[in-house]
Design goal:
With 334 residues, this protein is an alpha+beta fold. It is built from five helices and 18 strands. The protein has two domains: 186 residues, no CATH class; 122 residues, Mago nashi protein (2-Layer Sandwich), CATH 3.30.1560.
């Protein structure tokens, strides 16, 4: 197999379609097409960060990249390989790691630094030389390239010195892209000064938007929606313990407490209207506030990590019935 100019040898002799579905006549689904009953995205992040941290020196050693959301119906697979005894999910070896996601009928895979994959995993990676074309789209503000071969659609984005490749059957292109678009960074070896599990008194105050008028206050259990042309509306909206725990883990993943109070924004550029962000996190005797603007336009991975965090917060809010009952804001900003 040739990948980015590197020849990988020793590929297993399993048919190519084994990587994305049962071989003709197969009686049972391979492990990578069985949704796990217990494995979550948070579990995958923790395992990859822990394994990667053991490979590096120092407290902080770059980033790991995984999606924070999955296409509808997809979950982490029960295994990376076809059989229960094969490599687990995630598969981690040195600078290489990979995960598999499935909806029970097909699989989408994510591989980071695939050139470093051990021979036992080569058969699951893209086969043969690929002709990459830029898509014109971006992930974490980095250009994405795409290649299609033998009915398999591949997306590749270079992030902080790592090649991230997401691929699956061509008819699942929209779902594959959702994984690429949802990529978020997590600091390897970060968050050393905060509790590993969410403290009982954990709360946060998040503000965002033009003038930071959208406000989620978890201590008060309220959400304020900027109505633009009309007065803002405040409603009761409480996060569940699970949702708060997910966001606490996300904060740990990006090492939020290591950010400066002023995270900055655009340098020498202007966006009209400007989007302001502010996040104050408290718990276990620690209080930390980070402010900035227009993170979504800043190509630095750290700024993109904050932007993905706010996207995560907004996705939780927008999924709630209380939010869906709000009227649509009138007007717009210019």
């Amino acid at each position: 197999m040739v990948f980015h100019g590197v020849v990988l040898t020793g590929c297993a002799e399993a048919p190519a379609q084994d990587a994305f579905g049962p071989t003709p006549g197969a009686q049972e689904k391979p492990a990578f097409m069985v949704p796990s009953d217990t494995l979550t995205l948070a579990d995958l992040r923790k395992q990859i960060l822990a394994a990667s941290a053991s490979e590096i020196e120092g407290a902080r050693g770059g980033f790991a990249f995984l999606p924070y959301t999955l296409p509808e119906g997809f979950r982490p697979s029960a295994g990376w390989g076809a059989n229960a005894g094969d490599e687990g999910n995630p598969a981690v070896s040195g600078d290489f790691y990979a995960v598999a996601f499935t909806d029970g009928s097909t699989v989408i895979r994510l591989a980071v630094n695939p050139d470093d994959a051990p021979s036992s995993l080569e058969w699951t990676l893209p086969r043969g030389g690929l002709d990459w074309d830029k898509t014109g789209a971006g992930a974490l503000l980095h250009e994405v390239s795409e290649a299609v071969r033998d009915g398999i659609d591949h997306f590749r984005v270079e992030l902080a010195g790592r090649d991230v490749v997401v691929y699956g059957p061509q008819d699942k292109r929209a779902q594959i892209w959702k994984v690429v678009e949802g990529l978020a960074p997590a600091v390897i070896g970060g968050a050393q000064a905060v509790p590993a599990t969410m403290p009982a008194d954990f709360d946060f105050l998040a503000r965002w938007g033009v003038g930071a008028k959208n406000v989620l206050d978890t201590a008060a259990g309220t959400f304020t929606q900027d109505m633009i042309a009309d007065p803002s509306i405040t409603i009761d909206l409480a996060l569940t313990a699970v949702e708060k725990a997910e966001l606490y883990q996300h904060l740990r993943d990006i090492d939020f407490w290591a950010y400066p109070a002023d995270a900055g924004g655009l340098d020498g550029m202007w966006v009209t209207p400007s989007t302001d962000y502010s996040l104050t996190v408290s718990g276990a005797g620690l209080v930390h506030t980070v402010r900035g603007n227009d993170f979504w336009t800043d190509p630095e991975i750290e700024a993109q990590a904050l932007y993905k965090l706010f996207q995560h917060i907004q996705a939780i809010i927008e999924a709630k019935d209380e939010f869906k009952e709000l009227p649509e804001p009138r007007g717009g900003y210019a």
